[in-house]
Amino acid sequence: MSWEIHVDRARCAGSGLCLAQVPAVFDQSEDDGKVLLNTPAPEPALAAAVRTAAGRCPSGAITLHETGPDAGGV
Amino acid sequence: MPSSTDTAVPVHTRRDRFDPAGELRLMAGGEPVTRIDGGPQAGDVPVWLVTGYAEVRQVLGDHRRFSTRRRFGARTAPDGPRPDELVGQLLDYDPPEHTRLRQFLTPEFTLRRMRRLEPGITALVTEHLDAMERSGPPADLMAAYASPVPGAALCQFIGVPRDDRADFLRRCHAFLAAGRGRRRRAAAGELLSRYIAALVARRREDPDDGFLGMLARDHGDRITDAELRGVCVLLVLAGLDNVSGMLGLGTLLLLGHPGQLALMRDDPAAVDGAVDELLRYLTVPHAPTPRTALEDVEVGGRLIRAGEHVVCSLPMANRDGALLAEPDRFDITREPAAHVAFGHGVHHCLGATMARMELRIAFPALLRRFPGLRLAVPESEVPFRVHALAHGVDRLPVTW
User: Fold this and answer.
1) What are its cofactors (chain A) (predicted)?
2) Separation between Cα atoms, residue B291 and residue B312, nearest integer Å
3) Which residues of B touch A29 (CB under 8 A)?
4) Which pLDDT tens digits describe chain B residue by residue (400 residues)?
5) Contact A56 B103 (CB under 8 A)
């Protein structure tokens, strides 16, 4: 199953927790302190870490979405 | 001696040592949302207490329907300009006003910037441990360490000149200790504001690398003096007693759990998780700014009507089984939980990364310096804070 990460920069509170947890996927802008995505579709090995980071995001700005023909939001 | 279960204390701030007070749990009685007596401030407007984890996240995450603009006791938004003492106080702002002001501040708190501050914080911690070691044992851990370390860190961060720091911190603590008495609080707030206003003027003229200097240099023409002043007052409100409360209360808790204390002292890999479990378990802020519903909203099966007020209990939410299993067990080896000790949503604590960093440095450094650290009085004699914005202990007599 393939999936994609969405980040809502309007919602992001700039805690940097995601960058601290999965620096391969998330970054934090030095201009506005908000989340940046290095890649929306990281390698499967990072799935668990990304899921945890999304769950701990203090503003609910990170969501995971399945991609493919029958995909809906997760 | 007053206890934090006194009925004069607002119910959502009541604690029983490390735990939310028993009557708070009883009152919630398994219901995530209950009506409470909002006290004289609320007038005849209904006030709801939200204690469920999912429900707290729902309210705090929904800034479109739950406003933080201060209007306690009124069903409608305040008319006219914001009162002077609330200008720059982000917690009184809703988006898009909030977004405009906060966007200048978040870059000052990024993970990378905090990592650059780390050596400075480590040096402050060492300095205070040296002084404590020279003058003891025994010592009051609050006066010698838990209170001055966040104080010095805040001064360094804002850019308060070294010679001014003692005076500035005296004004801060007088303001924080003034409690809810309106007149006393206003007078102490005025003394603090006056110093900060002078510092703002100075940093506009001569910007340094601190928070105020950077803001003045990077956004000086887009942010007013009153806003800069208000933002600094907010840092004082958020960055002192919350951190010192965590350090004092956390040390006391760890002293009662020697195995976990040893783990935090000896295993650097355990520290991050330990700090987040301490944050979750102790959750020193009682509640974020009360929200006001802007339209009718159903939360936890109850209908909150437009204009009604909502108080979210952060310590109760963090002890909800919906957040994690065995929520009343303190265990630093847990996977870090998605707790709400720093709030949730667009108002999530701006300084969370800084607070975590201070705690990650200060706890292990203390425990390593004094491996024989123990209480100097029976545990029952440690005075817990009452009527404070953040939970904690007033004094923590220790020896080693």
Assistant:
1) [3Fe-4S] cluster
2) 8
3) 107, 110
4) 444 444 567 888 899 999 999 888 888 777 999 998 877 777 788 999 999 999 999 999 999 999 998 766 666 666 678 888 889 999 999 999 999 999 999 999 999 999 999 999 999 999 999 999 999 899 999 999 999 999 999 999 999 999 999 999 999 999 998 876 778 888 999 999 999 999 999 999 999 999 999 999 999 899 999 999 999 999 999 999 999 999 999 999 999 999 999 999 999 999 999 999 999 999 999 999 999 999 999 999 999 999 999 999 999 999 999 999 999 999 999 999 999 999 999 999 999 999 999 999 999 999 999 999 999 999 999 999 987 889 999 999 999 9
5) no
As a 3-state breakdown, chain B gives helix, strand, coil percent values, each rounded to 5, of 55, 10, 35
Confirm or reject contact between B347 and chain A (CB < 8 A): yes
Distances (CA, A) of B267 to A3, B165, B308, B328: 36, 34, 48, 24
Whether residue B96 lies within 8 A of chain A, CB to CB, comes out as no
Report CA-CA distances (Å) from B294 to B15, B32, B56, B82, B307: 31, 20, 17, 18, 6
Inter-chain CB proximity A33 and B114 less than 8 Å = no
Q: Which fold has domain A2-67?
A: Alpha-Beta Plaits (3.30.70)
- Tell me the torsion sign for CA atoms B173, B176, B179, B184: positive
**Homologous superfamily (CATH) for B11-147+240-399:** Cytochrome P450 (1.10.630.10)
Task: Indicate yes or no: CB of A52 within 8 angstroms of CB of B109.
Answer: no
Given A10, A30, A57, which is nearest B110 (Cβ)?
A30
ipTM for the complex shown? 0.88
Helix, strand, coil percentages, rounded to 5, for chain A? 25, 25, 50
CB contact under 8 A, A58 and B109: no
Q: What token pair was written down for B376?
A: 């100097």
Beta bridge partners of B293: B66
Provide φ and ψ at A44, rounded to 5°: -55, -30
- Residues B250 and B393: their CA atoms lie apart, in Å, by 10
Ranges of each domain in chain B: 11-147+240-399
